[in-house]
């Protein structure tokens, strides 16, 4: 009998009932978060430069903050402040960060270094505990709470620099695992610290029979590859043959839907899929209840949020943010509208534009979904295709053709013969076959029906579509040759012309 599982489940349910995780007054909670952040950092160089002390005395602290402190993207924040923070204390946050998260996103540019302070780690763990408490909303057996949790992260082998350690955020989080998690966490720090992705997954496959995994966590593309390796190495039909108690998968990093068909084919029966919004800059939202993939915004865990409408009120026709965009806080967001997310956090990120767009689906529950990337807005010829619309088009393609497109990318290229723009798609197929011309027809028809701007563009400047179908493994091989394979790395959904030409050249020559 799962005695300890019953105890843990009862404790979670009791705490969730008596001390609900969500703030009873989210508006007040957000003002409290902002006030605490400003108070803590008022004597830093950043706090003095932007006069946090004066902002704290304002009658309307949110408006004063918005008026006194400009919006920052990574390049601006790093050049003006974070570069100094690596060597000097008290720049954007008290002291010096012990960690920096490396994040190049999916652009292929030189890695960004995002500060990760002790306070930010605590903030992330608070949000993680809040999601764990929400398991009370799900009807799980008590013995699940005694099972192992397999977290597929990037390498936890952090690199020592001049007074700090650096690595990808998932590796940093694993290296700072709370003590109470150590008995449940798999694959364990020794395996997690293996730098080579293929070697790490091989070790997981070898050790898998020793574990009783009840929950998985990680980016879906690499999770699928890991599960397939475990199945192949142990000569299984599905993953439940080795982990019969597997009941939860916590996904994140990219949209899950394009991977659902492949992921579910590796199971013996359905499991609960929970989404998370965990970025290098923080843990911002989590799935808190059954029957939805929408996530609850973490309004009461040490971070302050603002939003810029991802339309003409905040961005120009090229997708570049305006010099004076409309910026609102949580009180004024509307359901169904795409917003660029702006965060202020205890990592010393101030009015920082993450680069993601979000859309609220339920204001009463504070739930939202990630709708795309500000920089993945494919709009070279006015097509205005968000990542959300691209993902939906691929899901429609899979449904109508029976194919399993696991990865994809698209970008605008000029035709050599006349200089006119076309959209070049590269589809990474998991298995089976897919005719490129059929794929072109389905994608074009779907997007014209779903997006009036795309339909207009197809009648004018966007002259054609080109579709190239490749095994998904060849797309991953492209990442590998740029040393971007495994863990938390995401394949880009939209590529600039130069990067897309590089991919096509690789596919032609490999």
Automatic annotation (TrEMBL):
Gene3D superfamilies: N-terminal domain of ligase-like (3.40.50.12780). Residues 389-498 form the GH3 C-terminal domain. GO terms for cellular component: cytoplasm. One of its GO terms (molecular function) is acid-amino acid ligase activity. It comes from the Bacteria. Residues 298-363 form the GH3 middle domain. This is GH3 auxin-responsive promoter. The lineage of its organism: Bacteria, Pseudomonadati, Bacteroidota, Saprospiria, Saprospirales.
């Amino acid at each position: 009998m799962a005695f300890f599982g019953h105890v843990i489940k009862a404790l979670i349910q009791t705490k969730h009932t008596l001390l609900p995780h969500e703030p009873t007054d989210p508006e007040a909670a957000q003002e409290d978060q902002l006030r605490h952040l400003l108070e803590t950092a008022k004597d830093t160089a950043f706090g003095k430069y932007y006069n946090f002390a004066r902002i704290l005395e304002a009658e309307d602290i949110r408006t004063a903050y918005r008026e006194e402190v400009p919006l920052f993207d990574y390049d601006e924040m790093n050049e003006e402040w974070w570069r100094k923070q690596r060597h000097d204390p008290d720049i954007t946050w008290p002291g010096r960060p012990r960690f920096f998260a490396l994040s190049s996103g999916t652009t292929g540019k030189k890695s960004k270094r995002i500060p990760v302070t002790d306070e930010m780690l605590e903030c992330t763990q608070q949000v993680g505990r809040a999601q764990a408490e929400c398991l009370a909303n799900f009807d799980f057996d008590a013995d699940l709470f005694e099972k192992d949790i397999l977290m597929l992260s990037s390498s936890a082998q952090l690199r020592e620099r001049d007074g700090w350690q650096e690595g990808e955020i998932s590796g940093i989080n694993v290296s700072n695992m709370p003590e109470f998690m150590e008995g449940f966490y798999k694959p364990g720090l020794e395996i997690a610290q293996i730098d080579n992705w293929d070697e790490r997954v091989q070790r997981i496959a070898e050790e898998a029979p020793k574990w009783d995994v009840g929950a998985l966590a990680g980016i879906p593309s690499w999770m699928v590859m890991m599960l397939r390796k475990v199945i192949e190495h142990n000569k299984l039909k599905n993953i439940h043959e080795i982990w019969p108690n597997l009941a939860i998968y916590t996904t994140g990093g990219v949209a899950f839907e394009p991977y659902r068909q492949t992921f579910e084919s590796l199971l013996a029966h359905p499991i609960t899929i929970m989404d998370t919004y965990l970025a290098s800059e923080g843990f911002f939202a989590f799935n808190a209840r059954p029957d939805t993939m929408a996530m609850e915004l973490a309004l009461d865990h040490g971070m302050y949020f603002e939003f810029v409408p991802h339309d003409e009120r905040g961005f120009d026709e090229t997708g570049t943010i305006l010099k004076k965009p409309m910026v609102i806080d949580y009180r004024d967001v509307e359901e169904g509208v795409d917003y660029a997310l702006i965060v202020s956090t205890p990592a010393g990120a101030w009015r920082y534009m993450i680069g993601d767009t979000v859309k609220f689906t339920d204001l009463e529950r504070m739930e939202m979904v990630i709708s795309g990337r500000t920089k993945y807005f494919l709009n070279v010829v006015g097509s205005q295709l968000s990542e959300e619309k691209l993902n939906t088009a691929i899901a429609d393609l899979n449904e109508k053709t029976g194919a399993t497109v696991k990865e994809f990318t698209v970008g605008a290229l000029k035709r050599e013969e006349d200089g006119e723009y076309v959209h070049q798609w590269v589809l990474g197929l998991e298995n089976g076959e897919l005719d490129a011309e059929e794929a072109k027809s389905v994608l074009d028809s779907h997007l014209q029906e779903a997006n009036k701007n795309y339909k207009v563009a197809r009648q004018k400047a966007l002259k054609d579509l080109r579709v190239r179908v490749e095994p998904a493994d060849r797309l991953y091989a492209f990442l590998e040759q740029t040393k971007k394979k495994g863990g938390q790395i995401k394949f880009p959904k939209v590529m600039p012309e130069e990067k897309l030409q590089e991919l096509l050249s690789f596919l032609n020559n490999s």
